[in-house]
Amino acid sequence: MQHRAKKKFGQNFLKDLGYVNKIVQSIPNIFKGERVVEIGVGLGDLTDKLLEFYQLKAYEVDSDLCSFLLQKYKAPIASEDLVLVCQDVLELPLKEGWLDDKEYILVSNLPYYIASTILLRVLRDPKCRGFVVMTQKEVAQKFCAKNGDRNFCALSVITQTLGESEMLFDVPGEAFEPIPKVTSSVFRIRKNNNLIQSGFEEMLRVAFCAPRKKLFSNLANRYDKKILQDLFDELSIELDIRAHQIPATIYHQIYNNLKVEKYGKQ
To answer: Which part of the chain is the Ribosomal RNA adenine methylase transferase N-terminal domain (predicted)?
Structure first.
């Protein structure tokens, strides 16, 4: 099929089959037999490989591509090995089982411009057990950063709360058509059974509002300084520490002490 990539959909088709194979080989053995969801089928190179091993539910927003894919995958659609959904995933209602009613894993070359939004939603979705995805390298680094890394941010804390992340490998622009101007990276997250407490992400936004400033100064924009001073002393947190320097576990301890209503500024 001759299909010109559409910039509005962030289309860069992965054509190097060596990297396609590496992505599929990166799916952990604990996920064998799981239902796989793919977002952004494109011309189907990754889809072809996934269908060799998994039942697949795939989303494609481009109506022109959908017409092609419905013909290309007529047989696996008829056998119910593939469910093809021609829809923008961001228009799906936010609920448990956001991408599928059954437990699933996400395996995708995600469009750069919506990758973070999609990954936050699947991280929060109890039906999603994990994912192996390709994104812009800078996005992957944020999801996989450890405290002390310069990329450590609120996304990193949320990821560490809900699962274990691992950077796998980079994919150069030459592996795509058209060639993107950035390097891509594949990373993997295996989720645990933890949930994010209501209000925790709001506290993280305050904590990281100025990432290179002192954590105490950031939190003091929202919380009482005297309470913060006592809390930092109790948790043995230095007053000059930066937001990216402390681990996710400490952020939960901070939140558990600050979530009482009287701790917030009126």
So the answer is: 19-193
For residue 131, the surrounding DSSP H or E stretch is: strand 128-136
Question: Domains plus CATH for the chain?
Answer: 7-191 (3.40.50.150), 200-263 (1.10.8.100)
C-beta separation of 134 from 24 below 8 A: no
Q: Is 162 exposed, middle or buried (0-12, 13-18, 19+ CB in 10 A)?
A: buried
- The yes-or-no verdict on residue 8 having pLDDT over 60 is no
Question: Would you state the pLDDT for residue 33?
Answer: 74
Tens-digit pLDDT profile for residues 200-216: 999 999 999 998 899 99
Q: Is 104 helix (H, G, I), strand (E, B) or coil?
A: strand
Q: Is 221 annotated as a binding residue?
A: no
pLDDT at position 4, please?
60
Calpha distance 22→17 (Å, rounded): 8
218 is in an annotated binding site: no
Q: Is 109 annotated as a binding-site member?
A: yes
In the structure, what pLDDT confidence band is assigned to residue 34 with cuts at 50, 70 and 90? confident
52 annotated to bind ligand: no
